[in-house]
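User: Need the bound-state model for 3-methyl-2-oxobutanoic acid:
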Amino acid sequence: MPRITIQDFIRKKKDGRKITMLTAYDYPFGQIVDEAGIDCILVGDSLGMVVQGLENTLPVTMDEMIYHTRLVTRAARNALVIGDMPFMSYQAGVEDAVRNAGRFLKEAGAAAVKLEGGAEVADRIRAMSRSDIPVMAHIGLTPQSIHRMGGYKVQGKTEDAARRLIEEAHIAEDAGAFSLLMEAIPMDLAGRITEELSIPTIGIGAGPYCDGQVLVLHDVVGIFERFIPKFAKRYVNLREAALKAVSEFREEVERGVFPSEDNSFK
Ligand code: KIV
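Assistant: Bound-state model below.
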């Protein structure tokens, strides 16, 4: 299978074929997601919560993102890999933003970057796109704005807020974003934005009418316990399986059952 490109994303929208996307943060899960035929892997700054055990994504650094993105691009044979720009890697200004975005392509092998925001970061989306760094914009619930939003809440519920999100989506497209991620917004609003834009939309908690869907891998495979968002679906409980395996190992060592002769050298 050839590597998925930005052009494939756009073609899929035109053909009405759904785009699939999951996060991954390391080599083994990067391989699994890639081998399963997922179109796109996002190395999300959600790693701050699901890998580093932080309260929110704000402390995640550029160097940490570059490190994790490298692990994933090493694993991915076919999927398009997107590096997620962490808090304060693009907020301070255009030049800073372009330099940091460029690091994902130059040092980590990503094909594109994602940043949170629409209108307020339009100048950065434009500058990156003009520097040949493809950008996915992210509107709705933007976790880096947790303090302004007062928590992780569904966005776009009033008429005014919905109108603002529609505007933001168009501004992101006009600035050159190749795709738009929409998080935690009402499904009919997401459907309307999807219809109005010519670039593909990817939803997380945005209902079924988006051009594609993304979830955090650790929610899908059941290894993040702190909370499960309403919009996530757990397809397997790997935490339970891992806990069972580790407990059995402990018990067998304590009882002198492991290692057996089969696991030993003569
Ligand atoms: O960081 C992340 O994992 C995200 C999700 C919305 C997919 O941005």
